[in-house]
Structure formats: structure tokens, C-alpha cells
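Data follows
____________
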Amino acid sequence: MIGRTISHYKILKKLGEGGMGEVYLAGDIKLKRQVAIKFLHAQFTKDQQNVKRFEREAEAAATLNHPNIVTIHDIIDTDDPASEGRQLCIVMEHVDGRSLRQKIVRKEIGLNDAIDIIKQICEGLAKAHQAGIVHRDIKPENILIDTDGRVKILDFGLAKLKGVSKLTAEKLTMGTTHCMSPEQLQGKEVDHRTDIWSLGVIIYEMLTGQLPFKGEYESAVIYSILNNTQEPVTGLRSGVPIELERIINKCLQKNPAERYQHADDLIVDLNGLKYGSGGIPTEKIQKKRFKPVLLTIFIMSAIILIVTGYFLIRPDKRSASGWGNSIAVLPFDNISNDPEQEYFCDGITEDIIANLSKIGNLKVISRTSVMQYKDVNKTLPEIADELNVNMILEGTVRQADDRVRIVAQLIEATEDKHIWAETYDREVEDIFAIQSEVAEKIAGVLQIELSENEKTLIQKKQTEDFAAYNFYIKGREFYYLYRKEDNEQAIRMFKKALEIDPDYALAYAGLGDAYSQRYHRFGFSSVWIDSAIKVSKEAINIDPNSAEAYKALGTAYSVIDRTSLAIVEYKKAIELNPGYFTALGNLAYRYKKIGRLDEAIKWNKREIQINPVFDGCYAQIGLTYTALCEDSKAQQSFEKALELYPKDVDARWGLVNLYLAQIKYSEALARAFEVLEFSNDSLNAFTYVGYIEHIQKNLAAASSHFHNALRRTQEKFFQNYHIVSMLHIAAIQWKRGEEENARQIFAEFLVYADNEIASGNESWEIRYNIAGTFAVLGEHEKAFQWLDRAIDAGWREYRIGMIEPLFENLRQDNRFERRIQHIKGLVDKLRDQINSAQ
């Protein structure tokens, strides 16, 4: 072949050989340039229809003009003197460089390089797909990278000739099989999403040096592609961002509908990954920045030395005046002979915390965190270090008959040095005065000047009757157990307190919290929310300065999704008590619900400051990080919550949600079943399991779990989890042809939803579910209208929307993709704002 002239191309040398034919470097005699010519194997020219199809495809590919696609110059149909038969060859742009396969073998690809390469492939594919051309054989051998780092895609127009949709037509090479999509292997009709699958295989191999689906024989590879799940990339290579793993997993979804629907979408996510906060450093970048890094280290070292020197030579200020910005009140010890007095000691501890929390310039660790140190054998410096405080208050309580003896000690934590101590030996009715005095004494010792309002709040007696107080703190003790029977006992205690003192605002607030939990946590009728609102407002009427009353009212509004009202009440509570941790956490959650993820993070972090060893704080901020697509931070937060409390249900649900967003269905399902093991009466648990099964199209299993969820409450359309179960049952019935039953459920839900929205429900969930209802019914215009309302109301978790079974009919509509991109833009902007602020 060398030296032969075909048309006006002179063959110069052989460049390579593949499954389709041989490639030669040639000189274009007319245009004085070098080209590459691929001579197709004779087997592809025997069938005239095959040849015509190839010519049509090649002609279409020749129209593609893009810097990431090898340009086709000519198609030549000539005689082959060696075989006395026909010969087809394709003349194309010559690329001076290496194939991607060569770079993978030589391990020349860094993390950022891999992203650049895939992005360029995507840009070329996007151009082809827009022209209606599918490559069908994207693999490292068909990707060239020139000496300038530019990617060039080879062999557009050849894959269809190869007959890859018919496995029996020709024996396939192992390399090609590894990159083929499930639908190709099953002989199904393929579209541009088969190229997306191949991209996922390529990214995976570039990052790990391994193929995602392996096998010793071709049949084993095919089985693996059709049935197995790839090993996580992050487990094979350190430093790979979890978001990049999510991108790969989405490309490698076996169902084409669950992959990226367009190459452009993949480009958007890759851009966000590479150019978003933090970036992905490569060795090349690090070398370029070597000197600035050294300078930074030098500067930081100097700063550290200066600061250290200051602390070494400054006067000793370990007196009270040198500290005092943070304190933890450890549970007071019960030294009475009566173990039943334990609740009394805990009540005193909580009330001292509540009084100290009213001091704006003092960080006070919350009750939830300090109670974890009850009966724990740790030194005070260890506890202070874990809670990040300078001061610790500890004490003892002895109650006998109508007398109480309280000893309180303030300790500088790092050196375990006593700063102040006081013994109170009083009548038991003086307990309220003792609590106020302790708070004021600590403020004085720490040289914190109290405002007149702070003094008033601290000195205010909540009740004149010790018996009423006794019932109140018993009620709180029961309430904090968050179990149905204990919640009922708490209600009885609060009511007994009110029988003794009908003007006891805190008892009304406690009743409001417990009534809200009846509805929110334990499935009671929604009429209890009316009762919760009523008694909470009564608490405010009695004491307009009660932070607990405003928080109780905010909670009642929250559980029925009157979010704007809830935010107002929570802010009032925090204004009165800056360290009120439950109000801080609830406010953060409400901001998340309206899509203000920046505000949510701010209040989440304030809560963690005063509640540093409480699992619930980390579970909640993990949910916010998930919505922000900060997956590594979300994962760390959930793991921290589970480290603190291995049975934290919210953290486990958070991981389920995170894995769903990352399209890790098996991991999500495993986590959901874990919760079912120790919470087998949970409405939420059965709903989540059913949801995951529905996403994976396991309709029988999904339906069974949704029905199990519905059995957990007697109320129709009870909260969002109940609604999700109802609607997904209807969607499954619709798919099975049981349209009459499905229509009835949808109709009932729409009536309920209309009433809810009319009465003030502001949640995005109900609008999202309305959109899903109309999507299943095929009423797309209405579905998109309600989807827009859901976005306006705060829906930001677009990754879940992309796999939402109710939206199955919408995903092929460009309008759905535009909305997803719109939300992604909102989330990206919020994430950048948060990171910039930090």
C-alpha cells in the first residue's frame, strides 16, 4: 500500500489498524496537506445496502464542523487490486498526537486533565447530537489528543456500518464491548444517550485505570454491563470529588431515561465541578504555584510565631476577666437520698442554662449537648475541649422536705481552676431566685455587663408556686424523650401545673409543643394543631417576653407549613433568648424549606456552636449541604451525627437522600432498610423504601411498602410522607392500567391540596406533588405551571427531581430540562455566596 496513489492522495506510511480497517498517513497532492485515510475491511463492502447506509452516515458526519471532531474530507469507492473487489476508504483530517487509549495506558492523565478531556468530547458530541448524528462507538481508541491538548473524535459515521446493534452480525472486539451501553447489547434501538453511557465508561477508566464492567470473556463482560453495579470511583482513587462520582454514576445508569439526557447537561455539571469553589488541583498547577505556596507557608508561620509569642509574654490573665465568652453548665448532681429527685436536678440545670442563654455576649452550650455528660467519666478540660468552651459550671443539689441546698462552682476549664463558688441553703420556694442569682453572679464574675432587658428577663419568676414548677419540669423531662407514651405523660404534667397556676406561661408553651408533636410525630388528627396554636398564643398573652412561647407557636405553624409565620415567631424567640438552640435549629430548617439555603447554613452553624455534640444538628446541616450539592460536606455531617448517636434516624434519612441524589440506589435502599430494622412502625421508613423501589421500577415491592406506610396513620393525606405514598400508589396503578382507581386518588389529593393552599400552606412539597399528579395524568401544561410554583416556593433539590417517578412523562420535554438548569443555577449561586462569605 505504501507509495500507492488513490485519487489525489499518495500513501506515505501506516498509522495503525483496528477492528474497522487500516489507517494510513497520506499526502493530498492537490491541496498540499497531510491527511489520514482509513481503508475499511472488505467485509463491510459486500452488502450494497450496508455501503449505501455508510455513505449516508459519512456524508452526514462530513457536515459536522467542530474543533473536537475529526473533519471528514472525502469518501472514495474504488477497486481493490489485491482482492479484485471493491474498496471503501474515508479521507479525514490528520491529527498529530496520541489516542486516549495510549494516554490511559501510560497513566498520563491527572484529575483536571480527565475533566478537560471529557468536556471536550461532550462538546463534540453535543454538536453531533444536535445534528441528529449518534456516534455509537465512543471508546478511548476513537479519541485522539493532539500536541496542543485538543481532543478530536474519530469515526463518526462508521459505527452504524459496523452493525453494533446486532451482536450476531460480526464478532466484536473486547475494547468495543466494554464501552457499549446495555441497550446496544440487547439489540434495542439506540439514540444519543448511548454515547453518554460510553462517556461514563471512559471517565471511569481515565480516573481509575480500570473498566467499570469487567469479565474474562466477552459474554462475561456483557453480563456485567447488563446486571452489575460498578465499584465506586472514590474507593479506587483518592481525591476524586464525590460530585464527580455522581456524574459518572449518572452516565452509567442502565436505563437511558436516568442518564444525562443531553451532552450539554454533562458539560454544565463538569463546569460546575471544575470551576466551582475549591477547584481540583493537579500536579501541574501545584508546580506552577510552588513559590507562592512557600511564601504563604512562610507568612502563616510568622503569624503563628507572633501570636504564640504574644500569649507567652502577655501578663497572666487567667482571672475571670481574662475569659468569659463561652460556658457549659454540666448536669447538676443529685446528692439527695431520693433518686426520684433526678428530674429536679435536671430541671435546675436546664433553667440555669435558659437564664444564661438570655445574655447576648455569652455563648452557652445547650441542654441537649451538656446532658450527654451526665454520669460520664471525663475530666473538665476534656469536656471543655469537646464543647469548645472556656468555662464550666458544675454543681450539686440536695432537696429534703421543704429545703434545698445548691452548691455551684465556676471553673476555668483548661487548667481546671476554680473561679467562683457559692452555696445556697434556702427554702425550696426560693429555687427561682437561686437560678437568677447564679446567672447574674456568673455574668458579674465574667465582667459581662447586663442590659436592663437582660436583667428583667433573668429575674422574672415564671410561677410563684413550687408545686406547679415541679409538674412543669417533670413534663419537660417526659417531652424530651420524644416517644408517644411519654408525650402523653408530658401533656398530663403540663395540665397539672396549669391546674395549680392557671397563669403559668411556660406550662402553656410546653402544652403547645406537645400538642404539635401529637400531630407531627405521632399521627394524631390535625385538630391538635389548632389546639397547639391556641395554647401557645395564651402563653404569649400571659408573658409577651417568653421565648419558649414564641418557639412553641413557631413550631405549630411549622408543622402545617405556614413557614413565613413560623420564621417570625422563631426570630422573636431568638431575640429574647439568643442561645435558644431549638429555635435556632427550627429557624434553619424553615429557611431551607423556602430555598434560602444561605440563611439555613448560617443558622445551622449558630446552632452547632452551642450544641456541638448533638447529632441532630449535624443531620440537619447535612440535609442543607445535600441541597447545595456539597456532597462531601453532607457525607461528613451525616457521619458525624451517626458517630455521636448511631441510631440517628434523621442522619440515616439524610444519607438515603444523598445517595439518591448521587444515583446510588443500592446504597440508598440498604440505608432505608437499616432504619426499618429499629423503627418498624415508621411511616417515613416505609415511604422511603417504597420510593426507592419505585425509582428502580420495582412496582410490586414499591406498592407494598407504600401501603405499609399508609397503615401507620388513620388520617388521610397526613403530612408529606403520607401524601407521597398515596400519590405513588396512584402512579403505579396508572402504569398498570388501573386508571379509575388512580384518578380517584389524584382527584381527592387535588381537592385536599387546593384547600391547604387556600388556608396558607406555603410548602414547595405540596406544589411539587400537584405537578407530579398532572404529569402522571398527561396534563403537561398544568404540570409545568405547578412545577414553577414549587420552584418559587423553595424547591431546590433538583437532583431528586431528575429521578422522580412522578415526572417520568416530563423528562423528555425540553421545558423540564430548562427548569432543572434554572434551579441548578440558583443552587450554584447560593453555594458560591456561602463559600465566598466563609
The radius of gyration is 34 Å.
